[in-house]
Amino acid sequence: MRNIVLGVVAAGISAALGWVARTYLWRRKLRRKRAFFGLPENSECLLVVNRDAGSADLAVHRHDVFALLELSALIKDCGANAEVITQDAARQGFGERTEFCVGGPGSNRRMAAHINAMLPGVRINTDPEPGPDKLAFQIGAEHYRMESGVTEYVMLARLTAGRRRAGRPVFLFCGQRAITNQAATRYLVRNHERLARKHGNNSFVLLLKVINSAAYGPDVVDLVADVTRAAQAPLPEPENVTAS
What we know:
Blueprint: H1 2-37, E1 44-49, H2 62-77, E2 81-86, E3 98-102, H3 109-118, E4 122-124, E5 137-139, E6 142-144, E7 151-159, E8 170-175, H4 178-199, E9 204-211, H5 213-216, E10 221-226, H6 228-232
Parallel strand pairs: 1-2, 1-3, 3-8
Antiparallel strand pairs: 4-5, 5-6, 7-8, 7-9, 9-10
Helix pairs in contact: 2-4
């Protein structure tokens, strides 16, 4: 009888210790997630949505809606609250609340403002006229052209204002098409732990390539490069061409 009682007690102690260990690890993981996203419990954040560049109405592309849904689930997991606003209604400064900004500068003026202010080494061709450089990225000295449905690019960035790393970050999902914005949000949701270990609370800018979205949607994504240094430095001066 004594052995049975001791066995039950030992099993109870082991179960309790296992529960305590799992709870500790879960809480530590949640703290790191909240710190990376700047989302303490019950905090407020902004979801800045663009408009559908291909629509005459003030509509939101369905892939951008899917991106917002994925971000909303992430925000809820952190115990925070989100306010959804349109790109032309965002009037607050930088660093007061965590911000998730979706869409390229041609359809999101808030994105254009962030790029102009914090990423001087980035240029995006927003000319509506068709051509090989339509929606092309220039990051530093490199150019990235889009081949619609086959090879498309998107920038995923976590930025903090200057030396105010204690301020809340802004996350940019700046793609050549709406489906690439969704691909970037999905990449962030899946890889935020690895990104937090590598970058901590520092700013970073990643260039992602979405492969064959016509067949695979937003699911097949490759990391092209960490372009933080090139994106935050001024663009190189164009070379002078001397006529002979």
